[in-house]
Amino acid sequence: MRNSGEPYITHPIAVAVQCTEWKLDAQALMAALLHDAIEDCGVTKTDLIERFGAPVAELVDGLTKLDKLQFHTREESQAESFRKMLLAMARDVRVILIKLADRTHNMRTLADMPRTKWSRISLETLEIYAPIAHRLGLNQTYRELQDLSFRYLRPWRYAVLSKAVTRARNRRRDLIQKVRREVEAAFADTGMTVRIAGREKSLYSIYKKMDEKHLSFAQVTDIYGLRVIVPGVTECYTALGVLHQMYKPVPGRFKDYIAIAKLNGYQSLHTTLVGPSGVNVEFQIRTEAMHVVAESGVAAHWLYKASDPNGQAASRLGAKWLQSLLDIQDETRDAAEFWDHVKVDLFPDAVYVFTPKSQIMALPRGATVVDFAYAIHSNVGDHTAAAKINGEQVPLRTELRNGDVVEIIIAPVSTPNPAWLGFVRTGRARSKIRHHLKSMAQAESQELGEKLLTQALRAEGMEKLPGSDPVYQVIWDKLLRFTGSRTKAELLTDIGLGKRIASIVAKRLTTLMSERGEKPDAVLMTRERYSAHENLSQGAVTLDGTESASVQYAQCCRPVPGDNIVGYLGRGEGLVVHLADCSVAKRLQHKDAERFIHVEWSDEPSRPFETGVIVTVSNGKGVLARVASALAATEADIVHVDMGDEAAQEATDLRFVIAVRDSAHLDAVIRTLNRTPSVLLASRIKPSA
After folding, report:
1. Active-site positions?
2. Do residues 29 and 144 share a domain?
3. Both 564 and 633 in a single domain?
4. End of a domain among 289, 307, 325?
5. Are residues 590 and 646 located together in one domain of the fold?
6. Do 393 and 364 meet the contact criterion of CB atoms below 8 Å apart?
7. Which one of 160, 194, 502, 611 is at 20 to 30 Å from 396 when CA atoms are compared?
8. Separation of CA 423 from chain center
């Protein structure tokens, strides 16, 4: 029995009935009747395959929640269930159609559920299922789910608004009837065959409009509208002309969704006209085919299967979005992160922009140039160097506006920047950037780990790491069991990230190699152990600026080539390079000295390095300009300047972050600054002890 006292079978039947309205095929109807069989009746997937065939079993399995697995939190289990359902839906969209039918019937009968569950189920419907229905163009279901959720989330507001709409409907009934008669007469005069239907705004959308725009009920004008359905596309525009001749259009309220369809395939002409008594009436003009797509969206694909064997237009509707779900899944292993990416993509507002070849692309509102680059192709996104909008160069964080022509300039050396995550809006871009940064960091950390382990092994008297050939495989297997790592690559990455200490791993590796009969070289051991402190050891890590993710230069002291430096293996953050006399490094050395390793500068650094300079100036006109031109004269780049928050005094401190080649270049910069008029003192910023 259900909570309402009805036999349980009424629920699967109601779900199947909804699916027949969408004209789904026999397999989908079988799955609709069986959708709770695995979850609630102990039937296995194998049973279903035997009785009803693999396709039906796949659909039912896609609809089954993951209650059997152990999760730490309700959110985690929910996220994993959604991920499973969305991926099943990306393979076969019928999964989500059955799920939406299931949810719609559950919402219609929610009154029979305990009140404690109302809020959670309604919120989930409003945040997840209604946007999915909208995204797939199922407008009728979208509106019904929103209204039902609103009814159980805010029962009092729902009741008040419902009464207000009924009162307004009675007041305006005559007016709408009058407009309808006039419109029908006008079309009859032109000899056009049209079908006119009333359209009422849903309660939830009225509430949302009042809430977001701070309007009273009386100020919401487009509660009522008329829908004009005509035979063909050309007649849509003719009908628009007829209406604009009859009533005055409201400026700025005309939208052509036929020329540029919405993301979910919706097409119509929208116009708001000033009707009798100065009341605004919204008209939607569309063809019969557009009407079916507007109400049923992706489900229209099945309606048209019979009449249009290719069914191209309808099947493309959700395909792009569904494909992007699979792309995001490839890059994301964590269910909650996957769910975040998908939620980002569910909000329905869109901007329409053009590629230089005039191809239209739809992106969520607030999308930036980087989102556009990833929408074209992940390779374009990964190598984005600059961008132009309407022929003018713009920063990569620029938000796109309707009608922009966007051109992406790529460079083979460009790679995704972690800062992009702060402004991209699409799930696809976010997951691609994260994936790239993770794999880059891993490759670099692995390389660093290998250097560190080789260095530690030499200090134990072994010349080099054992190879990957089968002879040494036993040694590696034993070492991996000792460290608990799954693979050699994972072990080296962990050493590079500072999660494991190279010297401890090297000691164990030496023992294992000795058991195989390889003896440590006493001369090598002595040389490595003692020279590591006095001279530069062969195994030292050499820095030239090309390392990006695995090596960080400490923000507290900002070392540059030529400085005495030390390397600290932070737990999980890779190698952090400090000045040898940096107070922060000294404190860390005091705490865990074994995490410090020997590092040295390469003879030819590949790029400028950033460091901090504090310049005390006597305040006056043009001081900043003088200091900036002195820096420019020494060929130092200004990366950042900070003048503090307090009001300007006689003497003010200017803090610069500048990029220099090495310590000699930095000394030259400071000498030049100290000779500049108005500068009282210039010095390098060092961390206070």
Report:
1. 39-40
2. yes
3. no
4. 307
5. no
6. no
7. 611
8. 10
